[in-house]
Specification:
This protein is mostly helical. The protein is 63% helix and 4% strand. Helix 1 packs across helix 11. The protein starts with 5 loop residues before the first strand and ends with a helix.
């Protein structure tokens, strides 16, 4: 029997044990819905460019926490079960930067659809920036970057197994969901991209048998300078980074409510206005897409 890969695991809390595959999938669905139904609605933008934006945002959402699958994090569950720790810590090393490097290495060799053929490396760089900064949408990125001079991590066989299991489980969930007309458009892109990811993870075993990767801050600093100077090329990148953390928050709330009939306890009062707006967004989207979310949350691990 496969071990469950968690995006959150806390001692003595049933509702704070959230499977990573379901969290990533819910986040990508929310990202897709918010873009299609709210942000892009009514905008004068070609169908081709609309799909390109959706592909980038979907990849970012599907992979924003993929680094949490690594054994350096998941092995902490044993300590939690033994009472040596209260929860899995995803901050050392910071999971968003680990996720960014994994996302980059996966996407740069992926065949991409919707007019992005031959642009895999370009898209990989954009998604890397989005994923690395998805928590900084709620924090000052310049302060965070100054703390992260370099990070090193390895990807071993167990890590590859965990990564592949996470992506395959997302794909199998999407395959099981009835593709009715109402929400099929939000799943088709996700399904296509997940299918390509499964093959890419298989290739990681050959191309990156031991991956020692140093995450230098220079590329993040140059990216942040461009944002600060309001370079239009990076505006959508920053928007999608913010969209990813909003979708993440929505996904957490929906999972707890659909699975346990409860809302997530204990919210950070510093961001009380933000969480209030997220609650309003969740209630609006859930009413319209409740069958879709129930299908995802009810899938067994």
């Amino acid at each position: 029997m496969e071990e469950v890969i968690f995006s959150r695991y806390e001692k003595d809390s049933i509702i704070r044990k959230e499977p990573l595959s379901i969290h990533l999938l819910l986040t990508s669905v929310y990202s897709n819905i918010i873009l299609s139904d709210f942000l892009l609605r009514g905008m004068k933008i070609s169908d081709n460019n609309r799909y390109k934006i959706l592909v980038v945002s979907t990849l970012s959402a599907l992979l924003h926490d993929i680094g949490k699958a690594l054994n350096v994090y998941q092995s902490q569950i044993r300590k939690v079960k033994k009472g040596l720790s209260n929860y899995i810590s995803f901050g050392n090393p910071p999971h968003e930067f680990i996720s960014a490097i994994i996302a980059y290495n996966m996407i740069k060799n992926m065949p991409l659809p919707y007019g992005l053929q031959g642009k895999s490396h370009y898209v990989a760089c954009i998604v890397r920036n989005i994923v690395s900064l998805h928590h900084q949408a709620l924090r000052n990125p310049f302060i965070e970057i100054s703390r992260r001079k370099e990070i090193t991590f390895n990807i071993g066989n167990k890590d590859r197994v965990n990564l592949q299991q996470t992506v395959k489980h997302m794909y199998h969930i999407v395959e099981k969901i009835p593709m009715n007309i109402f929400y099929a458009k939000h799943l088709l892109i996700i399904k296509d991209l997940l299918k390509e990811m499964i093959d890419i993870i298989c290739d990681l075993r050959n191309h990156y048998q031991i991956m020692d990767k140093y995450v230098k801050s220079s590329w993040i600093q140059s990216f942040c300078r461009a944002i600060r100077e309001l370079d239009i090329k990076y505006v959508w990148t920053r928007i999608i980074s913010g969209l990813t953390i909003i979708s993440d928050s929505c996904a957490v709330k929906t999972y707890y409510r659909m699975k346990y009939g409860k809302t997530e306890p204990k919210e950070n009062s510093t961001f009380s206005v933000y969480f209030r707006e997220v609650k309003l967004l969740v209630s609006s989207v859930e009413r319209k897409y409740e069958p879709l979310f129930k299908n995802i949350c009810d899938c067994s691990i």
